[in-house]
Every structure is written in C-alpha cells, then in structure tokens.
Amino acid sequence: MSSEKPLPFVYQFMAGAVAGVSEILVMYPLDVVKTRVQIQGRVPVPGQDHYTSMVDCFQKIIKNEGFSRLYRGINAPILMEAPKRATKFAANDEWGKVYRNLFGVAKMNQSLSVLTGATAGATEAFVVVPFELVKIRLQDKAQAARYNGLIDAVQKIVRQEGILTLYQGLESTIWRHVLWNAGYFGCIFQVRELLPANPENIKSVQVRNDLLSGAIGGTVGTILNTPMDVVKSRIQNSPKVAGGVPKYGWAFPALGTVAREEGFSALYKGFLPKVLRLGPGGGILLVVFTGMMDFFRGMREGKLA
Q1: What is the pLDDT of residues 46-65, one digit of tens each?
Q2: What letter does residue 195 receive in the DSSP assignment?
Q3: Transmembrane ranges (predicted)?
C-alpha cells in the first residue's frame, strides 16, 4: 500500500493481522447487529425477536440477552481477522506485482487497482469461509443455543452436517469479497490521487489521508457488496438437512429469491450497521496497516531508536 520500497510478504502479513484485529475489537458489535438483521425474514417468527432497525436490534439484544451478547462469537472473527486481513493486504500487494509485470506497467493505475483488489478479494474468500460460517451460526439467536462456543460449534457442524459444510457459501463469499475489495482498493487509489500531496511525509497528514481514503473505500465497497453479504448470511445460516433442498443455495438465484419474496430493499438489510462498521473500519484498517508497515520498514533500516 505504501509508495516506498515494498517489504517482504511476512511483514505485510503481520501488518495486516494487527490492522484486522484492531478494527474488529472496535467495530464488532455492529457486525452482530448487521448479521441479526440480515438473516431475519419479513414475517416475525413466533417466540423470536424481530428487529425493525439497527437501534431496535441493539436495544433488544441488550435488554433480552445482555450486553455481552454483542460480543458473542467474537473468537471466530478474531481468529479469522489475522489471516483474513493479512491475506487481504498481502494478496493485494502480491497480485499488484503480478499484474504490473503481466501488463508491462511500471506503476499502479485505477484499472489495475480495481483488478488487483478483486483478485485479492477472491483469494481472501478461501481463507475466511469456515470462520464466517461459524461466526454467523453463533451470532444467530435461534441457532446459538445449539452450540457451547467456537470449538463445540465446529465439532457439531462437522459431525452433523459434514466437513464440507464449513465451506458452505464459498461462491457467495467470493462474490462478496471481490466486490468489496475492488471498491475498497480502487477508491483508495483514486482518493489518494485527488488528495493534496505529502512530499515531506508529515505523519499527521499521512494518517488523515489514509483515514479518509480508507473510509471512502470502505463505504463504496459496502454499497457494492451488501446484496451478496445478505445472501451469503442466508446461505451459511441454513443447516444442511439430509435429503432436503436448501432455500438459499447459489448466490444469484438467492438474490432473486430474496428480492422476489421480500422486495429489492431486503438486499440491503443491515446496510446501516455494516456501513458504519466498514466505512470507518476501512479507515482504521488502512491507518493501522500503513503505520505497521512504516514501523517494520524503520526497524529493518535501523531507523528506530
């Protein structure tokens, strides 16, 4: 992500891991709310809470389940965030090198930034699917009672539904990450080009630019990928039943099913908590990642006191 000399893969991986965990510790409750809103249908289910808005969801979770429920299932995403965010940034840098060599381009441009981000997103999806599935099962109030935590959830899913269930929703997850990363990294490149230059490498200016470009990138990525995120949540929250045909199977048919039964707006369920998380969260990611890369660069060059 930096315009300076690239660091080896291991440093990109470590910086991405620290950035990812930092972001999730701050923003996780919004992810719980987003998932709850996405997986509910239009018609309330007897005996279960039905949420009319983000605020309503927050209030009902805290009132009926306790504040700690907003952090239920956080073990899975914390374990996921290190490889997920590390893969995101490292794959983006590595695919950038591949495409620059492939097309004979010396520097990144807007088109290559979008292509590189999309490919990095597809790469990232293969890492995160099992973690995402377990996280969603633990976040859903109706299903959470079946599991006594992360390890128990993994064991029961594998034993009752088969090990391949951990990759249920892979296709929709790939689409979700392709769209988000293409928008995120494409916007970061464009916004950085539009912002005033920082030739003296003033730290406060760099942080401001990274926070702004990352937040805009996160917002645009969220606008692009929310429909795929909705159907991914539905697909992964559908337990396999022997001989049964799941209502939500493949991504694009699932998009049609949700739109037909609940209206087009249902494809943007959970958008507000999602964009509130991934807009600022995208800025946090970029600021922490860039800061860590600068730290590692200074350490390697012997510039740290």
Answers
A1: 878 889 888 999 999 999 98
A2: S
A3: 9-30, 278-296
As a whole-number percent, the residues of the chain with pLDDT over 70 amount to 95
For 92, 175, 181, 302, the CA distances from 219, given in Å and listed in that order, are: 19, 17, 11, 37
Residues 226-245 pLDDT 10s: 999 999 989 988 777 666 77
78 touches 134 (CB < 8 A): no
In this structure, which amino acid lies at residue 48?
Q
* Bigger pLDDT: 103 vs 40: 103
CA distance 8 to 87: 13
Structure tokens at 170: 């892979």
Pick the CATH number of 9-301 from 3.30.1490.100, 1.10.3880.10, 1.50.40.10, 3.10.450.350: 1.50.40.10
| Cα–Cα dist 207/291, whole Å | 8
